[in-house]
Amino acid sequence: MKHFRKILIANRGEIAVRIAQTCREMGISPIAVYSDADRLVMHARTADEAVCIGPSYLDIDRVVDAARRTRVDAIHPGYGFLSENADFAEACAHAGFVFIGPPAEVIRKMGLKTTARRIAGEAGLPIVPEGAAEFPVLIKAAAGGGGRGMRIVRGVVELEEAMDSARSEAERSFGDGTLLIEKFIEGARHVEVQIFGDEHGNVMHLYERDCSTQRRFQKIVEESPCPALDSSQRTHICEAALMLARHIGYVNAGTVEFLLAPNGEFYFIEVNTRIQVEHPVTEMVTGLDLIQLQIEIAEGRALPPRPAQTGHAIEARLYAEDPENDFLPSTGMIQVWRPPANVRVDTAIEEGAEIGIQYDPLLAKIVAHGPDRERAVRKLVYALKTTVIRGVQTNREYLIRTLDPEALEIAPHSLEGPLRGGPYGYRNNPRVGMHPVANRSPRPPSADSRQMANSPMPGQVLRILVEEGQHVTAGTALVVLEAMKMEQTIRTTINGVVKSILVRLGQVVAPGQMLVEIASENP
User: Fold this and answer.
1) SS3 for 22?
2) Which helix (H) or strand (E) covers residue 355, if one does?
3) Among 233, 394, 474, 498, which is disulfide-ready with 229 (CB 3.0 to 4.6 Å)?
């Protein structure tokens, strides 16, 4: 059995802080890596050692070199970045480091959704029907997850543009533009089963999570147990996950994801071969530290007995984004940060932290546990109400109203102050220190003979889809922006001619910045 002395954490943000915490509790030294943009961030400052790996967390050679320089025993990939990269797992092993995750061959099998579907079918799991014979359909990136490269298409007219956009996003996010088209199941819930396997051939599940509350195909609220499952359905869906785990020889942490149709039938969709963002809700209902369990399995220990599922846990993801403007990302400096005191908070933000456009806009995970769902939700709503963050726009109020539609008192001091009963649009995170405020969307048609298409968010110009002198009609795509791994297409709202293009490829733009000028055909 191995005993790790040092573990390199090949990630950033809250998950890097979270892994480091468990390492210390186990008597293991946590070593951080950080990008050029992350020199002063919490996860790098608070590690026992930290190594700069240049501009990207995706540079396998630099990460492995950092592991050599710091003489670690193992590498934990966290989630995202290189966590589901089989080449990275192999590179770690070839360099003599233990990769804390599944074997490379399992990652490779499950990494492509097309291959995973076939293997799951061989294991006896029900699969979502494939193909575009009947709309609506769901386009998915075959090599990725997290909502990247995913589009719902409700008619053949939308199909080509949606596929081009999804393919581009998939190539940038995962280095592979291969797409999969599945039947879109209306009203389905997203239910996933946490699995673990050890090196001795044992597998177990740690129950299920419901992750149905999403925006842009990304989860914002997760809970366990799933409120839509009865005991019989729970047994069947968890056993299906174990069937697949046994079939592929699964080792370490993973998640088998399903769609639960309104009629109670469930379908396999994918396997995430890593720890999940939402793992805290499973920890809260089982009492286990899943990061510790990952490390112990990588050291060669056998799985413990499965604990009972106790109470109800629910997690809300606090994002730097504007729900009233299509959830577009928000940037700026965190000026005030006062997290709630009555719940678990996983975060790497602090006052003075800069939220830029390079990375995912997740700020914190706020997790509540109670004896039942009603009391867990009530606890989480109160925690969100007492959370104070200023300097960036967030989805805090949106989360409150999602969890409790009757919640009207959204500011911590609103019970007695002048803001009592304030409107939904109220924010207690003003734009102090942010980009200049300007018109954040293209102007609607008017008597004006021109239209200025403006940037609705801070971001980088990914594609320019028109040329000067080109005739366009209302709805024509003009420019594609990217920020925090999210793509946004800017369109014209009038018929006209492109008079001037005011940005260039790769340029970083601010909210309200003019992108394209359109001269109306009917001045």
Assistant:
1) helix
2) strand 354-355
3) 233
Two structure tokens written together for 362: 């997740």
Quick check: 51 and 43 in contact, CB under 8 A?
no
Q: 428 pLDDT exceeds 70?
A: no
Q: Is 274 among the catalytic positions?
A: yes
- 3-class secondary-structure state, position 362: strand
Enclosing H/E stretch for 268: strand 266-272
- Give the C-alpha separation, 486 to 208, whole Å: 28
Give whole-number Cα distances, 450 to 54, 174, 472, 519, in Å.
44, 39, 13, 5
Q: What is the 3-state secondary structure (H, E, C) of 177-237?
A: CCEEEEECCCCCEEEEEEEEECCCCCEEEEEEEEEEEEECCEEEEEEECCCCCCHHHHHHH
Residue with tokens 């932290």: 353
What the block records as the tokens of 435 is 């980009």
d(CA 414, CA 421) in angstroms, rounded, equals 8
Looking at the chain, the whole-number percentage of residues with pLDDT higher than 70 is: 91
Measured CA to CA in angstroms, residue 30 lies from 71, 99, 243 at distances of 12, 15, 35
CA distance 113 to 150: 13
- Over its C-alpha atoms, the chain yields an Rg (Å, rounded) of 24
Report the SS3 class of residue 245: helix
Q: Does the pLDDT of residue 523 top 80, yes or no?
A: no
The Cα 422–Cα 419 span in angstroms is 5
DSSP state of 491: E
Q: Which residue has the tokens 């890593």?
A: 274
- Tell me, what DSSP letter sits at residue 467? -
* Nearest CA-CA partner of 493 in 469, 510, 476: 476
Mean pLDDT of 489-493: 92
**Is the C-alpha dihedral spanning 183, 189, 192, 193 positive or negative?**
negative
Question: Which residues, 6 or more positions from 107, have their beta carbon under 8 angstroms from its beta carbon?
Answer: 84, 85, 86, 89, 101, 273
Find, among 446, 468, 465, the residue nearest to 517 by Cα: 468
Q: Tokens in use for 134?
A: 């009947």
Structure tokens at 80: 């995202």
Write down the residue that tokens 């090599």 correspond to: 143
Report the mean per-residue pLDDT for the chain: 90
CB atoms near residue 171 (< 10 Å) = 16
* 3-state SS assignment for residue 259: strand
Mean pLDDT of 195-215: 97
Dihedral angle computed from the Cα positions of residues 515, 517, 521 and 523, in that order, rounded to the nearest 10 degrees: 130
Cβ neighbours of residue 342 under 8 Å, at least 6 residues apart? 368, 379, 382, 383, 386
440: pLDDT strictly greater than 60 = no
Q: Which two tokens stand for residue 146?
A: 């997290």
Give me the catalytic one of 274, 344, 390, 396.
Answer: 274
Q: In Å, what is the CA distance from 245 to each residue of 198, 228, 322?
A: 11, 24, 39
Element containing residue 453 per DSSP (H, E): strand 450-454
Q: What is the pLDDT of residue 289?
A: 98
